[in-house]
Write a structure and sequence with these properties.
iron, two-stranded antiparallel sheet, TIM Barrel, binds iron/sulfur cluster, iron-sulfur, BATS_dom, catalytic activity, alpha/beta
């Protein structure tokens, strides 16, 4: 990719790996893709809307400024496709923050190593308390989240997962990127899904926001979904942190990333998420603000691009937005999330939070809202026994 590396810091960078997305990204031009969405016309949008199978050029048209007058038609079609493929359902999950210790410096995150906050890594007793508190709320799908540090890595995951997995039918994680062999090992003890968000696909901007620590290795993170696919993990999650860069260009490159993975790891399911930058300790002002209306356009465009894609909506978004978004194309939502370790079983300690939650309603209130919107809440949509049907 035609990006100049920022002089902010020079740490070891993993090489491009042939056959992985890092090699494909080399051939994509950020400037060329930026120009492509600006050049789309209403005619391009009409053609994309009329198609059954959309390519990346069609997706580009649907997220372009030219598609803004077509929002109603896009959302209507997105609702229909989601209903056909996933029925009338929304699956709920809870994030379990195991640790806020982190050896990285990310400009947008409250867990950054230089932020003077209290650090906590849950021990086995604390993990069991969290599991009990989360189960009491009815959740059966859990997302494990940690900061990124060598102190909270494979030995810790191998110790904790056996205490957690027996209580949940679906276990995903959002932790530091690992090697394929490590993912394979975690799969044998119950890991079903891994989310690794690239934050931004523009190398220059990525390096400006990831100042210290292993996360500043752009290619190693970028190729993590390939390693997850090679390990045969059931679900792979992609995401860009909307606001770090031009959201349209990042989304188009993420569409390339998705197609690259789908061609190679066709036994896996894929999900995408749409986190927008939220206030946090040491937070930053977004470079590219995506409005509510544009976020709706982006969500509908993803659904039209890929009817099988799981799409997840977090409590970063406001109750008003989530209430309206429920029917648009989402398949999965978090509810009553605590973004600090120990947040479910112990009293809230907001100084430990990764970011501020916007939708603070209880899981019962969220479930009631989903039902009011004519949707059914699903607590369990996956069982490891189903993997034998592949
Ligand atoms: S975004 Fe992740 S890696 Fe970066 S500081 Fe926060 S927890 Fe650490």
């Amino acid at each position: 990719m035609n990006n100049t590396v920022s002089p902010v810091r020079l740490l070891t960078q993993s090489p491009v790996t042939e056959g992985h997305f890092s090699a494909e990204l080399e051939a994509l031009s950020w400037q060329g893709i930026s120009a492509s969405h600006q050049a789309k016309t209403e005619q391009d949008v009409r053609l994309a809307l009329a198609k059954r199978r959309l390519n990346i050029d069609d997706f580009t048209a649907l997220i372009s400024p030219a598609a803004e007058p077509f929002l109603f038609a896009m959302v209507t079609k997105s609702e229909q496709l989601t209903k056909q493929r996933f029925g009338n359902t929304i699956s709920l999950f809870a994030p379990l923050y195991l640790s806020n210790t982190c050896a990285n410096e990310c400009t947008y995150c409250g867990f950054s190593m230089s932020n003077a906050i209290k650090r906590l890594t849950l021990n086995e007793t604390q993990v069991k308390s969290e599991v009990t508190a989360i189960k009491a709320k009815g959740f059966d799908h859990l997302l494990l989240v940690t900061g990124e540090t060598n102190k909270v890595s494979m030995p810790y995951f191998e110790r904790m997962i056996p205490h957690i997995k027996p209580h949940f039918s679906q276990l995903s994680m959002e932790v530091q990127p690992l090697d394929a062999e490590q993912y394979k090992k975690l799969k044998t003890i119950g890991l079903d899904g891994v989310l690794v968000y690239q934050e931004t696909y523009r190398r220059k901007t990525y390096l400006e926001h990831h100042l210290r620590g292993n996360k500043s290795d752009f290619n190693y993170r970028l190729d993590a979904p390939d390693r997850i696919g090679q390990a045969g993990i059931h679900k792979i999650g992609l995401g860009a942190l909307l606001g770090l860069e031009d959201w349209r260009t990042d989304s188009i490159i993420m569409a390339h990333h998705l197609r690259h993975l789908q061609k190679r790891y066709w036994r896996s399911r894929f999900s995408v998420a749409f986190p927008r930058i939220r206030p946090c300790e040491g937070g930053i002002v977004p470079k590219s603000v995506i409005s509510d209306r544009q976020l709706v356009q982006l969500i509908a465009a993803w659904r039209l691009f890929d009817a099988d894609l799981e799409m997840s909506l977090s409590t970063r978004e406001s109750p008003e937005f989530r209430d309206h978004a429920v029917r648009m194309g989402f398949t999965t939502m978090s509810a009553e999330s605590k973004t600090q370790p120990g947040g479910y079983a112990e009293d809230a300690q907001t100084a430990l939070e990764q970011f501020e939650i916007s939708d603070e309603r209880s899981v019962n209130d969220i479930a009631a809202m989903i039902q009011t919107q004519g949707r059914e809440v699903i607590w369990k949509d996956w069982d490891p026994a189903l993997s034998h049907c592949d």
